[in-house]
Amino acid sequence: MADTILCFDIGGTTIRTATATEGAQPGKVARFDTPAGDHGAFLALISSIIDDLPERPAALAISLAGIVNPETGRLVVANIPAIHGTDLKADLEERTGLPVIIANDADCFAVSEAVFGAGRDHDIVFGVIFGTGVGGGLVSGKRLINRAGGFAGEWGHGPVVPLVVGERTIPHFACGCGLSGCVDTVAGGPGLQRLHAFLHGETRGAPAILSGWHAGEARAAQTVETCLQLLAGPLAMAINLTGATIVPAGGGLARDHALVAAIDDVVRPLTLAKPRHRLVVPATSGEEPGLAGAAAIGFQTLEIAADRA
Ligand SMILES: [Zn+2]
Known about the structure:
By secondary structure, the chain is an alpha/beta fold. The chain has 9 helices and 14 strands.
């Protein structure tokens, strides 16, 4: 059995990396600038990080804000030109001679919560992200569902938000995924900003909207309340579909625990189960769920490979 995995959380500007042992949170985190647009420089950077380690890891496990196209094996990760459209797994395996495991960041978050966080005592964990976008990942028995594609649990996309909230008509905004009416367009940071601009003709970032909501400002409160009404039905439906008994929330907006509680207040009564305990809860698996989740998926993948051998 492998001793260590080198895990990476790859973002548009920064690569974070740490060494992990099985069943433990990753160790000290090192940071590097993400090479802009140059795949060769990207591969060279990863190689040099491995060369600098005191001992060679058993595998590389990578979390990133994208998916692996299950038909072509190529990455769809629009905000990182250095790896978008590449077969990063094959390229890195050839360059380093190590097994490479790549997973979507929301999936890594969900696994991190299932293994180390709020989902520790639950069989089915549906991790949801309220960040730059709205995403999610689904875990059963600590194992990710549909790891290869990264689509399972992605409740943020689909033409589903209500068109009327109270007396007010809310248009279906166009989404980056090609559809319109996605939860992603109204419930992440940019979505909240878009909703506020539509309702009040005022440009205001999500943090300012949330602080206005906390301060009892009417406009900010209306924006947040509208956002909650738009996401409640789709999220309740997703929870019914998955059978999740806990829904840890992560991403920038979920750092606002009052917002997470408000989401739970609107969503829980719409679920069929209507449990007495909080369903949507703040994440508790630490500051590096991407690294922790990638490492856990990496160890699981190595175990599966060893069992088959
Ligand atoms: Zn969409």
